[in-house]
Amino acid sequence: MTENTGTPRRPLAHIDQQRLFRLLGGPELAWLVDRCRRRMERDEPLTGPVTLAAPTAAERAAAERLLGRAPGAGRSLSMRLDTVDAVLRRSGVSPDGLAAAVTALTGPVPRLAEVREQEVNAWRDAYAPLDNLIRTVRPELADWADRLRQDGRIRRLARTPHAAHTLLGDAAQALRGLPADPALSLPAFAARVLGDAHALDDGTPLATLVLSGVRALAGFPDGSGAEWRREAWASAGLLKDALSSTVLTLGLRGTPALDWTADRGEPTVLTLRQLTRTPPRTAPTVVYICENPTVLATAADTHGPVCPPLVCLQGQPSAAALRLLRHLEAHGSALLYHGDFDWGGLRIATALLRRVPWRPWRYTAGDYRRAATATALAPPLTGTPTTAEWDPNLGPTLSELGVRIEEETVLDDLLADLAP
């Protein structure tokens, strides 16, 4: 590093401030001072020429006053920094030269290398709350924390190291208390742990980060949408609107309430709250799953207390339905699924299969072809085609036959399978 680029060794009091401002401090030479400052920030020497394209008459005049001569009459204005440095030293305006003069005019010049190093250190320190969490109580989150560092998520959620430190501190505080046992509402947890019932509301950076950590803790699969978020929170014992998410069941046992309704052959509506706090204590060997409530209601009317366990999705699988089916499957139940033979039905079945393993219950290409052949007035198939992961032939067969077969159309076959 040359003497011209470093911080002046003698105090700035040696500079003649008034003469310096007259020579170099006006707006006509601001471009020159700015060029010098940028070089100093990059630790580059203040030597060699600098050029200003299309200078004004005032800028030429200011350069002439500084140098004591005309800098040239070309279309651009060129000045050698070595010459400017020599003029300032020789005149006594700035005995330490050009670098000292720039510092006197614009203030201390931060070196970019130092700034970058400070920023790197600040971002490293921002992760301290997460590092402490992993070291003390959550070593299983180490891989997740590494991904956060690598994918730049924290920098996107919190633009500065200070904001990141605060965000990660709050996230670590929340994750330290999970999973919640017994389960409680998400707002109640946020109020208790973070002092703000809305701290984990959808869309906030903190909610995004904590939900990501929750998924890492629970091994929860990728997804999107309100039901997916509801189920993901529930996997850590946090209930987000836990009463509105429900699932319809018949013949299921394992709690006093379920035993009572099963003995009477009556359908039961279970909430996500119930399934999180008091899931069934037993799991049957086989659980049937249907899409439409008509199937379950008719099964209750037909078979009553002897109907095998049946779960109805009532459309897209809710967080409560997924919670129940995951619990049953994890405890040994085999899940058999049937839905409508149309593009919407295939999408519902696919959404369920990607979250819970099941086998088809009269829900293959052969089953569809037999039902379509036996149905005289089946409505036409509409909508956008899709695939069926459990049977690659099912989608093409729907396209070939072009009719929609709802569950109610094959209700007799389904009831026969449910007969004791």
Automatic annotation (TrEMBL):
Pfam families: DUF2399, DUF3323. Residues 269-418 form the DUF2399 domain. Residues 46-253 form the Conserved hypothetical protein CHP02679 N terminus domain. Transmembrane segments: none annotated. InterPro entries: CHP02679, CHP02679_N, DUF2399. It comes from the Bacteria. This is TIGR02679 family protein. It comes from Streptomyces brasiliensis. The lineage of its organism: Bacteria, Bacillati, Actinomycetota, Actinomycetes, Kitasatosporales.
